[in-house]
Design a protein that fits this description.
The chain has about 190 residues and is an alpha+beta fold. The chain is built from 4 helices and 9 strands. The chain has a 5-stranded antiparallel sheet with strand order 1-2-3-4-5, with helices on one face. The protein starts with a helix and ends with a strand.
Length: about 190
């Protein structure tokens, strides 16, 4: 009788395990979504105020304030950032909205890693922005290819892009402090 009972318990546990594993999609919680947004904004939990998470059909809208400004994200239920908006302080004219799927047009570009090393020249501000992004990523300029950098004078931010292992990285850097505001892989 004891063997049958243990077998029944084992089969029931195994069945429950298989049932739990059969879900096809990942279930991302609101806390996970908030963590994605905070990580992208380089903000800690204690730096975020007025946090709001609204669930929509296929995404979440996350908004919060930090000392640096206000952030709003549209994040898919898969955890991928679809759109972001950053407003520095209370000034409307410094709002940046970026659709993640569409890269920003750059002013300077190179076509190969060799050309990037030898012929690309950036002004002092662009080079500082590039250095900040690479340092933030733990990379050297020689590690990456196709580096571009442009200044958006409306937001006073640099957009830096580069390719590493066939993955394009786009980062936004504050032009006044050379602080990396956000980094997007893909």
């Amino acid at each position: 009788m004891m063997v049958k009972r243990n077998s029944l318990i084992f089969l029931t546990a195994f069945g429950l395990l298989l049932t739990g594993c059969s879900k096809s999609g990942l279930e991302i919680t609101k806390n996970d979504i908030l963590e994605v947004a905070r990580d992208d904004a380089n903000a800690t939990k204690s730096e975020c105020e007025n946090v709001s998470i609204k669930e929509q059909k296929s995404s979440y809208i996350v908004s919060f304030n930090t000392n640096g400004g206000s952030y709003e994200y549209k994040i898919g239920k898969d955890g991928i950032i679809k759109e972001r908006s950053f407003k520095r302080g209370a000034k409307e004219e410094t709002t940046e909205t970026e659709k993640v799927e569409e890269p920003v047009k750059e002013e300077k570009s190179t076509t190969s890693k060799k050309e990037e090393k030898s012929s690309t020249s950036f002004d002092e501000g662009q080079q500082q922005a590039i250095n900040a992004v690479l340092a933030n990523s733990g990379l050297e300029q020689s590690d990456v290819s196709n580096i571009t950098c442009s200044l958006d004078s409306n937001t006073n931010q640099y957009t830096v892009t580069f390719v590493l292992n066939d993955v394009t990285t786009t980062a936004v850097v504050d032009a006044a402090t050379f602080t990396v505001i956000s980094t997007i892989l893909g």
